[in-house]
Design brief:
The complex is a heterodimer of chains A (193) and B (165). Chain A is of the alpha/beta class. Helices cover 37% and strands 18% of the residues of chain A. In chain A, strands 2-1-5-4-3-6-7 form a seven-stranded mixed β-sheet, covered by helices on one side. Chain B has 165 residues and is mainly α. The chains are: A alpha/beta (193), B mainly alpha (165). Chains A and B meet through helix 1 of A and helix 3, helix 4, helix 5 and helix 7 of B.
């Protein structure tokens, strides 16, 4: 029985270091991006107790606040602000439209509560038609570039945020209000603080 | 005069063609015209559904707006820019080639190329140690004697195997 000499294992040429580093950096970056995205989607809306993200709302013609077509939330410090996200294509928004307008009429004379309507992903003619249909008179504007809704991380419409005099979110209503009394109970409790 | 008479049918045909072309420009854009623009857009409400096939009311409103803009003589680029201004760049099916968006266009091909290079390097047949392939000189080499007791070991193994059969 003959035996061949033991084979010397061929020296395998490995993947160069620069390629390994590149691959690991790429994979890590990819995971970081995915993780950030997941974290953002699972974060939900801004929470009660958070400072409301500042924004500037471009008001629709005829829906300005004290004649100002650009409404900055931080300019309203010292007032209670009710930010309502809505859209003309949103059926549940129609349920609460009249109640919101009525509530606005209740608090407008005192001047310490401001209602702001933020129109989400809508077309201007349809939005103006909706405002006219429900006789809305409180300040309203389009969420240009969906920047405001992204800052609040809204999950849908309607959503309403009650912001206190210090700019802190005190109550969040997801979905439509059922009655004027429901809106008033929230506003009155915040006014009493 | 005769020349003018001969020219008349020619002018008539040309006029008819011109009129036909004018009538072909329908002031109301067709669904195809609208969908040509719509399929390049995504409504933020219905993620992952192109605007041309999205069944929601919001998307129907957007398509109506595209129709209006086309009827008003807006170009495709102008309409897309309008939607970007109104709703942000995320409505575009193709992200604009600016800033961090470049990653979307650069990372996949770079990763693909790196992957191909790694695969090629991994599966490339290695040449092995120099002179490993049987060379005439190796024939003359003195074979290494078998390890002591290896024959005995093989015999025992064969016995064991026979027993197991």
């Amino acid at each position: 029985m003959t035996q061949s000499p033991p084979e010397v294992a061929p020296k395998k040429k490995g993947v160069p270091l620069w390629a390994q580093v590149l691959v690991w950096v790429g994979v890590t970056a990819l995971f970081a991006v995915v993780a950030l995205g997941l974290r953002r989607t699972q974060q939900g809306t801004v929470q009660v107790g958070d400072t409301a993200p500042d924004f500037t709302l471009a008001a629709f013609p005829g829906y300005e606040y004290n004649g100002a077509s650009q409404l900055k939330l931080s300019d309203l410090k010292g007032k209670l602000v009710v930010v309502n996200f809505w859209a003309s294509w949103c059926k549940p928004c129609e349920q609460e439209a009249a109640d919101l307008e009525e509530a606005w009429h209740v608090y407008q004379p005192e001047g310490d509560v401001v209602f702001l309507g933020v129109d989400y992903v809508d077309t201007e003619p349809e939005a103006l038609g909706y405002l006219e249909k429900f006789n809305i008179t409180f300040p309203n504007g389009a969420d240009l570039g969906t920047r405001i809704s992204q800052a609040f991380r809204i999950k849908g419409v309607p959503e309403t945020y009650f912001i206190d005099r210090d700019g802190v979110i005190q109550h969040i209503q997801v979905g439509p209000f059922q009655s004027l009394a429901q809106i008033q109970s929230v506003v009155d409790s915040l006014k009493a603080k | 005069m005769k020349k003018l008479f001969l020219l008349f049918p020619f002018v008539l045909v040309l006029s008819a063609l011109w009129a036909g072309a004018a009538f072909a420009q329908d002031p109301t854009p067709s669904d195809d015209d609208v969908n040509r623009v719509a399929k390049q857009l995504f409504c933020p409400v219905c993620e992952n559904t192109p605007l041309d096939v999205c069944p929601t009311q919001a998307c129907a409103q957007w398509r109506a707006l595209i129709r209006e803009k086309l009827a008003a003589g807006w170009t495709e680029a102008q309409i897309k820019q309008y939607f970007v201004d109104q709703y942000g760049a995320r409505v575009l099916s193709e992200p604009p080639r600016t800033g961090l968006n470049w990653l979307v266009y650069l990372v996949p091909p770079i990763l693909f190329i790196v992957g191909v290079i790694i695969l090629i390097r991994t599966f490339k047949p290695s040449k092995g140690p120099a002179g490993a392939e049987a060379s005439p000189a190796s024939v003359d080499e003195t074979p290494i004697p078998p390890a002591a007791g290896s024959d005995e070991y093989v015999a025992r193994m064969e016995d064991e195997l026979k027993k197991r059969k």
